[in-house]
Amino acid sequence: MIKTTVNTRDGAAPTGDEVHDVVVIGAGASGLSAALLLGRARRRVVVIDAGEPRNAPAAHMHGFLSRDGLPPATLLDLGRAEIDRYGVDIVRGRVEHVEPGYDVRLEGGPVIRARRLLVATGLRDELPDLPGVRERWGKDVLHCPYCHAYEVRDQPLAVLGTHPGAVHQALLLRQWSEDIVLLTHALELSPQEREQLEAFGVRIVEGRAVRLVVDDDRLRGIELTDGRVIPRTAVFLFPRPAPRDDLLALLGCAKDDQGWVVTDRTGRTSVPGVWAVGNVVDPRAQVIAAAGMGSTAAFAINTDLLHEDVEHAAARHRAHRATAALT
């Protein structure tokens, strides 16, 4: 379906009875990447975004070829400018409801009709209830060594035992620093884990943290219940990832045993016409991986639309031939 459209450029939602080929919900790396490819394929696309990117607290993102060290907001600005060139509509707003078909209703706004739906709403990080963690999140309280460890290399680092994966995290961080402490906090270490940590040069500190010690807008250490302060310049921890998948659940998309929406390799869900990509289905996907997921889904969606377009054209062709035969 070749389109003629007026780009809203972050304005109001499209109105009237027009049907978009694809509605993309979420304008992070995965959603924008999908919109870029679909726009270049001359599909009628609208992107809806609530403006709540997961990596907003981070000053820089890393591991994205040609964009390493770029502020996350700058990447999104560049992405929006790129899809703008291809006539993709961008709408600021939050989706209230989606009905099969697909009718996408915005909070306090109109209904946007679409032939296909791509959900790229990401996730939210649920942080431990420890004073200082939320305030320092993305600064010197971190979670991904591949994303952040190089910037704090050779510094005294701590791993907070809030998740069984903290042991692996502490072992991994030894690649960036020789001074790593694993604070057990809520974690029960097995004898094997203790042996691995000690053998690999990770110091184990028993005790529970009560707060982060911050001075002059810099992390200075971690205070324990017994009053000790463990001097550190950065803390790594595992947040609990909570997917923003309410819309997918509403549509009845199947989930796995861990509660994550199941997709195939292209991002296709169990519900016909619905794709999901990025952190909403994979909490481990970094920015560059999420962008790739968006592109992969866009190829699949365009192919799916093409098959439908061809089937409809063939049906019209047969009907025309049948009518001509009767006259």
UniProtKB/TrEMBL annotation:
Keyword field: Flavoprotein, Oxidoreductase
Residues of the FAD/NAD(P)-binding domain: 20-291
SUPFAM superfamilies per record: FAD/NAD(P)-binding domain
Catalytic activity: [thioredoxin]-dithiol + NADP(+) = [thioredoxin]-disulfide + NADPH + H(+)
InterPro entries named among the record's database cross-references: FAD/NAD-bd_sf, FAD/NAD-binding_dom, Ferredoxin-NADP_redctase_2
PANTHER family listed in its UniProt record: THIOREDOXIN REDUCTASE 1-RELATED-RELATED
Designated name of the protein: NAD(P)/FAD-dependent oxidoreductase
Originating species: Streptomyces yanii
